[in-house]
Amino acid sequence: MRNYQLPGRSTIHSQQGMVATSHPLASNVGIGILKKGGNAVDAAIAMALVLPLCEPQSTGFFGDVFALIKPSGSKSIIGLNGSGKSPENLTSSSIRSKGHVCMPNADVCTITLPGAIAAFDSLHKKFGKLDLGDLCEPAIFYAENGVVVSPRVAFDWSYSANALKGAARGFYLNRDKPFKVGEVFFAPGQAKMLSEFSKKGAAGFYEGEIANDLIVSLQNLGGTHSFEDLENVQAEYVNPITAQLGDYELVEMPPNGQGVTAILIRKILERFDLKNLNPIGAERVHLEAEAAKIAYSARNKLIADPNFYKFPIEEFISEEIISNHVAKINPNKARDQEIETRENPHTDTVYLTVIDENRCMVSLIFSIFNSFGSGYSSEKFGLLFHNRGAGFSLEKGHPNELAGGKRPLHTIIPGFLKKKNEFTMPFGVMGGQYQANGHARLISNIIDHGMDIQKAIDFPRSFPEAGHLKLEDGYSSSIAAELKNKGHNILRPDNPIGGAQAIIFDHVTGTLKGGSDPRKDGCALGY
Fold it and tell me: What does the DSSP assignment read for 240-297?
């Protein structure tokens, strides 16, 4: 039980349905869809369509989606890969010929095709109950009538506004300045796009007037993107990866996502006595950082588009491999070797989850990679172009080497945690590269330290990245000093580390419990 005399949030409890997103307008839209008779998939789509208007720096319609869905009445979980591919005519040699050793961070060559709208269309056709027009209506309303900019969004806007270039500056700046708290952001061009989607489904985006704006704008920027590339975008249903963790089961998306990295971190940490460590102590942070360095380095060597490279999942998380990893960890000293990577870091994403009264459940994550994506937008409708292709490698022969028609390594991962006959929890952690580490940290807070879902989300975070061990302000200076003595290069970041949402369906009581991260503006709502 939390101390009610101190600032904090309580876990949300309800019986019929529940949603959790990083913005209150989106959460309210989701509850409205459920009360209107929609199911969890309907609510997830409607909330996702609103979030690019509420948090344009974090996501957009020219982005990618991954989702895990547990249909009503089923014990199975289905995965949907809604990530786009590189243009067919783009090659790694063409990028290397310009002198690049690794992918540029926000060049037109990093703009892969957008998979999100194809994913939403596929989800609606396969699982939806309401008409697509009903799901688009709230987003169209906010695009036309505006969204009042909230505090965390304004903070991010000011932090990343310099990334905006060309036409995007006219769409996403207010008189050439970042939007401030209380100002109203309008997106009439996106209302037009949503209207086309509501009437024609995916064809309203990947064909016709919207498609023409996208491809002409990309070609004007020097891109190799073609109308055929856009028309060939498809979402793909996949089998999730599952891992038994004692009495618990963790469900993650397979490559090209990094879900297996979260499993590897957790399996490494299970070799240590986590339950008896101080949850806020230096020992826990140190072990987690060392496990993350190992797991992310392994990820960066092997995870890629499965249509180009068969990822050895069983070997990656085998007991023998884990034993080898554990042997490299000194409980008292940080390894000199940092995470081995030539891929670009990123920080911005939105995650949402929803459970309806029939216990259909959705875990969905939606991103444009960097804050404001590539920084470019389409010229007519102002659709931000993501830069997900920055996740490719340019190393010759690397599994994740850029090639035409290929999906890059993705950092965004939805998750589920289950405990047989006790609970099922769709959850996700935002924050770019942090997400796999964030999954491991969140479930450790629950499994090892018995935290309720809101406390597990609130709890201070740490992450080894770019030669530093990032520590949020929730860690004291004495803990930072202990970690420095173990050899860590401590960095106090300007921004909080990620965000998170989760909902638990309690099998025993039949009720729902939800939490949403105070690092964002959002909330969990139930009815």
Answer: PEEEEETTEEEEEPPTTBSHHHHHHHHHHHTTS-GGGS-TTSHHHHHHHHHHHHHHHH
Cα 145–Cα 149–Cα 152 angle in degrees, nearest 5:
150
Task: Specify whether the backbone of 8 is left (phi greater than 0), alpha (psi in -120 to 50) or beta.
Answer: left
Structure token pair of residue 397: 């022969």
Specify the long-range contacts of residues 121-126, CB closer than 8 Å, at least 24 apart.
121/197, 121/201, 121/202, 121/235, 122/80, 122/82, 122/202, 122/235, 122/237, 123/41, 123/44, 123/45, 123/67, 123/69, 123/80, 123/235, 124/41, 124/42, 124/45, 124/201, 125/201
- DSSP sequence for 405-473: T-PPPB---EEEEEETTTEEEEEEEESTTHHHHHHHHHHHHHHTT---HHHHHHS--EEEETTEEEE-T
Q: Tell the residue number behind the tokens 């989760």, with chain if given.
A: 502
pLDDT in tens, 148-182: 999 999 999 999 999 999 999 999 999 999 999 99
What is the C-alpha to C-alpha distance for residues 165 and 329, in angstroms, rounded to an integer? 44
Q: Which SS3 state, helix, strand or coil, does residue 53 take?
A: helix
Model confidence pLDDT, tens digit, residues 188-227: 999 999 999 999 999 999 999 999 999 999 999 999 999 9
φ and ψ at residue 414, rounded to 5 degrees: -80, 160
In terms of residues, how long is the chain?
527
DSSP three-state, residue 304: coil
- Phi, psi of 159, rounded to the nearest 5 degrees: -70, -30
CB atoms within 10 A of CB 108: 22
Token pair in block for residue 432:
């770019």
Instruction: Give the CA-trace dihedral at 257, 262, 268, 270, to 10 degrees.
Output: -150
> Could you tell me which of 57, 54, 50 has the C-alpha nearest to residue 375?
57
The DSSP element (H or E) to which 79 belongs, if any, is strand 78-82
Q: How far apart are CA 63 and CA 61, in angstroms?
A: 5
Structure tokens at 445: 């807070």
Kindly state the tokens that stand for 348.
């911005």
Q: How many CB atoms lie within 10 A of CB 163?
A: 19
Residue 490's φ and ψ, nearest 5 degrees, are -80, 135
